[in-house]
Specification:
39% helix, alpha+beta, structural constituent of ribosome, Ribosomal_uL18_bac-type, four-stranded mixed beta sheet, 116 residues, RNA-binding, ribonucleoprotein, Nucleotidyltransferase, domain 5
């Protein structure tokens, strides 16, 4: 079934399968990381809509591809989610490894009040 998939695609499939098994009705904090930017959104899969989002494309100060910028995105997405009434999420890192910018975003979101 996974023949021909990249390591990234295998990690993403494994992560999403585990999330669906334990998420229940909690929204998911999904992230995407590119070479220059990082994006985060809180998604309600039951209703199929985005509750809150943030990225380094808007509202950033200076650099966009470092851990400090990712932490700022984590803080902003957590504040937007709390304003929408969401405090508990599951963290969907996709196929990205949990270190560097991904870890900085997750820790900042936790510090800003999201529980996962």
């Amino acid at each position: 079934m996974t023949k021909g998939l990249s390591l990234f695609a295998k990690r993403r499939r494994r992560n999403r399968t585990a999330l669906k098994a334990r998420a229940g009705t909690r929204p998911r904090l999904s992230i995407h990381r590119s070479g220059k930017h990082i994006y985060a959104q809180v998604i309600d899969d039951v209703q199929g809509r985005t509750i809150a989002s943030a990225s380094t494309l808007s509202g950033h100060d200076g650099a966009t591809s470092n851990a400090a910028a990712a932490a700022e995105v984590g803080k902003r997405v957590a504040e937007a989610a709390k304003a929408a009434g969401v405090t508990q999420v599951v963290f969907d890192r996709g196929g990205f490894l949990f270190h560097g910018r991904v870890k900085a975003l997750a820790e900042a979101a936790r510090e800003a009040g999201l529980e996962f």
